[in-house]
Amino acid sequence: MTIHAAKVKIPAKNTLMTEQLKAKKTLFSVMLVVLFSSAGIALPYPVLAPLFLNEVSPLTTFADLPSKILLGIILAIYPLGVILGSSVLGAASGIYGRKKTLIITLILTAVSYVLSALAVMAESFLLLILARFVTGIFSGNISIAKAIAVDLSPTLDKTHTFSLVNATSYLGWLLGPLAGGLLAIYGLDTVFYFAAVAIVIALISVAYVLPAGNSNSSQPKIKFSQLFSKQNSFALLANKKIRRIFLIYLLATLGLNAYYEFYPVWLVENFDFTSPDIGYITVVLTLFMTITSVFFVKQLKYLLGLKLGAIVGMMLMALLFSLHLVLSATSVWPIYAVIGIAIAIFNGLLPVYISEQYADIEQGQLMGLITTTFSLANMLMALIGSVLALFGAHWAILFGALLLIIASIDFHFSQEDIR
Description:
By secondary structure, the protein is mostly helical. It has helices at residues 2-42, 45-54, 67-96, 98-121, 125-139, 142-151, 158-183, 188-208, 227-230, 240-271, 275-295, 297-304, 306-322, 332-357, 363-388, 393-414.
């Protein structure tokens, strides 16, 4: 009997190991996509603030509007596209297949980056706006990557996979601004061409590394145009409980984006940072985000729980953002390192809380709503913050700190603790 039991257990163990190996391979391919997609998105950011604040051209003087307002429009139009794209792409991947949808969107993202480069060469503000909008639409495919990571649960721990995907995203945000800052001497068009190359690499990784997935046969096939009315992520907001948590998430990401969008402007205003300088300090920021996400977020989940851990991340961000009133050219470097830690805690725990709380919902659609909400916050803060930045970029960042405090309080009193 003992021998017979052993024979039964060995195949089961081998099956588990095979499933875990397959899941790790899938996670690796997703991380490659997120790495190069995030790097492509982040490439232009160190270049845009110095360009619009320090240079005079048809791009920076369009319609005789203040350069900070034009910069705000440029920053806002991209997430507007992401809102449109991520609201349907996550759901589309659940119907038509994750891999197929991801490949199509990556191809179109690369094309849109080339269009951005051509717009810069032509010094056409309107064409650049169009190109950034289209890029945003198809960059909403990050919601697909997150949905794939969620699909790997319970074979792989969901918090761990989220942490690794987030860490890869941070690494992309580390390499992207660094490359953008270094490439700035060759012109903004070169930066966009380089972003297109990064997306092509991501495309190759999906085509050859990501295992083929099956579409959801339980759902009837519908036309892609019908996704906007029948399967968009905003439809989830009909649920009052989901609406409440996403209002909290919106407030928190508004606060986070106040920092993301305007710390380059603040650095230029206060310390005359150049594009390479912004790239280097962004490396510090994202390096600590990456380290925290890989090595500490999972442990914080078990130590504090998802709810308290997310609150700690939000309150720490609020405190550190407030320090922009007193930071010096020297102290800004270590403080930005700690900000990276706080951001990683927030990004690593709150989305997992939402996924765990609503595990019965199609995760592609849910991740689409998370990405859409973040992008909506990105767009709104680009517009609101650009007005506040007319009085000084620190006002936009301080406003973000206030929103994070409000989100933390609401989250504490309205949501259950999940451990």
